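Subject: Sanity check before I submit

Could someone independently write out the structure tokens for this chain? I want to compare against mine line by line before I put it in a report. The sequence has 137 residues.
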Amino acid sequence: MTMTPAEADKILSANFAPWVLDLGLTVEVVGEDRAVLLLPWSQRLAREGGGLSGQALMAAADTATVIAVCAARGGFVPMTTVQQSTSFQRAVTGADVRIEAVLTKLGRRMAFADIVLSDADSGALAARASTVYAILG
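---
Independent answer below. Compare away.
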């Protein structure tokens, strides 16, 4: 059974801290090994100079990974971040960000993902991340 974006949005709203929900993330696509989320532009998340903050982008990448694991597992499972590495390529100013998390390996107790963050208007690469998760349940 494939998870729908609406089901994934419910996982997001039921299991994440209020400050993560304040990012305004929405799930656009879920698949057997991936999730695509949208981070809407907000001046609140911008830093001096108008670029979207790295902290917001990293939180979005982290969240997209959780949704991808949940989609692959068929529902929410407790998990925790073990490692995240992010390389920023260019600033995003005044545009939404599309976050695509693709699972590269999903085991019983560990999950690995590569994440691409891009300007939703132009498609230009903003950042790349990789994550490792411990699955607790």
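---
OP: Matches mine. For the report I'm noting this point. The chain has a mean pLDDT of 96.
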